[in-house]
Amino acid sequence: MNDSNPPERPKVGVGIIVIRDGKILLGERLAGHGASTYQIPGGHLEFGESFEEAAKREVEEEAGLADIEIRGVVSLGNDIAYGMHYVSIGLLAESRAGEPYDAEPGKSKNWQWYDLDRLPSPIFPHSKNVIDNWRAGKIY
Hints:
Order of helices and strands: EEEEHEEEH
Radius of gyration: 15 Å
Strand content: 35-45%
Number of helices: 2
């Protein structure tokens, strides 16, 4: 290995399952890797942020929902997709008020509530892992 060019380290991603009335919030990715797939809200953990702070920030930035209650961590992942490596933390949150909208119209659109038995397809791989782990009731 060439020490002047060390390998990149994994990044930390946070994905948030937002539920209301038994439905889950999903939007369509528009830009970058995974474009045209459906995703839960999420993004990078920022320096100094707690998982909960990151979750609240990402849900508001992407879908415009500011009033959510974090229930806890429901998924841990070591995800490699699209040539990238992420340690992924999935959180469960409940939305109490407001309707989702396209708060970052260049990055995602069509934020809607979906029945768990009728999820759209295809789902972004990192989001699918979080949803699958949550539904399987894995223990971390």
